[in-house]
Amino acid sequence: MTAQLGVLFATVAVIVFSAVGFYLYQALALQLQDRDDVDLVERMLQIRHLLEETSTTESIRLDPHRFLDAVDLRRGLLLVIEDSSGRALVHNTAERRFAQGGFVIPADAVPSTADTRPGALADGANLRVISASGRIGAGDQLVRVSLARTADERLAVLRAYRLKVWAAAIAGAVLTAALGYLLARHGLSRVKALAGQARQVTAHNLEMRLDADAAPAELRLLADSFNAVLDRLQSSFNNLSQFADDLAHDLRTPLNNLMIQTEVAFSQPRESEEYQRLLSSNYEEFGRLARMVESMLFLARADHDQIALSTERLDAAEQLAVIAEYFEGVASEANVSFEINATGVVWADANLLRRAVNNLVANAVRYTPAGGVIGLEAVQGAEGVTISVANPGAGIGAEHLPRLFDRFYRSDASRSSESSSAGLGLAIVKSIMALHGGMASATSERHGMTRFSLFFPTVRA
């Protein structure tokens, strides 16, 4: 990148210097031409003055030095003076073609630079030409004066200037490329430092962070975003490690139960009733394992959008009534009751809605003290319906609330260590709400009410 920036600076410098040089070259060419035109006008006025001091055309032919001295052939000035018949009285060049034809300034008119015109010699050399009539003495006899100036001197100046412009452009490009390379290298040194810090981040060093304050202002946002990614990655990595530990513990318990019960059964002959009890117990353990695996598979499918929603209009009160009826037996055993207060229509997948609310109600039944009342509410809003499950109890610590729905996260106050979902129940609720474009939230008071809320938008986000 440093070399590319250096080349880019050099290219820009060549273009800029060339454009400026071309502009100055054209300006100088016009200025030199204007200077030549002014010089031609001044010399024409001088020759007219000499003609007024001359008595006859014959004296001009016999004594041409006064007129020839007014022009300098070495500087490319050409002079031809002709009488009315076209006979040359004075000339310092054999090529008189430039003096023939063209506009002639009247004797009474004052010449100006606007009266000059371009011309050419036989060899193709460019000229600036001016022609005017001159009066001999005080009489009415007129002669034609033609002055011309070759472009040799002007072209020599422009040629030297052009070489200087190209030399300046090349030198400027080289200097700009060198300085640009050094400046880019210095500016990108902090980028290299950030890259060095990023290379130090490994799976065993996830706490490493980029020094965003030392980064250039343009890259500070990128460094902050990279650090945010590392924060999420570290959090996910820690949660995954914790989940692996929890899952190993939760899987080990039913597997140990299965193995121990089977070994005891095989230790000696048993009655058929004992084998039935063993099979019944094993069936429960297998069910627990199946629920854990099913929860993990559900979350994996939800992550990859492999769960198709069958969204429909559902009556919130009717759905909550069905859920309360499903938990009626469990609630009776726990000596708790339900109170339903619901209105509105929910746009959701019926099976997933019941699964999300069932998870919340199961937790509420588990942690509601005997004699408590679990509230099932649904409130219709402008943008959707909010379904809430509220129960009294010990409450959830404030430090757990921000991460309560995180996958693999468990807290003693909110999730039992014996949960069949291995701490995935609320994570499943969060995934279901994400599939619906909604959100899940929780509030809790110590030794007060704990409320879980699910917002289902009318239109999926």
Topology summary:
Elements: H1 2-52, H2 57-62, H3 65-68, E1 77-82, E2 88-91, E3 117-120, E4 126-135, E5 142-150, H4 152-199, H5 217-266, H6 272-303, E6 311-315, H7 316-326, H8 328-334, E7 337-342, E8 345-349, H9 350-367, E9 373-380, E10 384-392, H10 425-435, E11 439-444, E12 449-457
Parallel strand pairs: 7-9
Antiparallel strand pairs: 1-2, 1-5, 3-4, 4-5, 6-8, 9-10, 10-12, 11-12
Note down, in words, how this protein is organized:
It is built from 10 helices and 12 strands. It is α+β, with helices and mostly antiparallel strands and 461 residues long. The strands form 3 sheets. A 5-stranded antiparallel sheet has the order 2-1-5-4-3. Helix 5 packs antiparallel against helix 6, helix 7 packs across helix 9 and helix 9 runs antiparallel to helix 10. The protein is rod-shaped. The two termini are 41 Å apart.
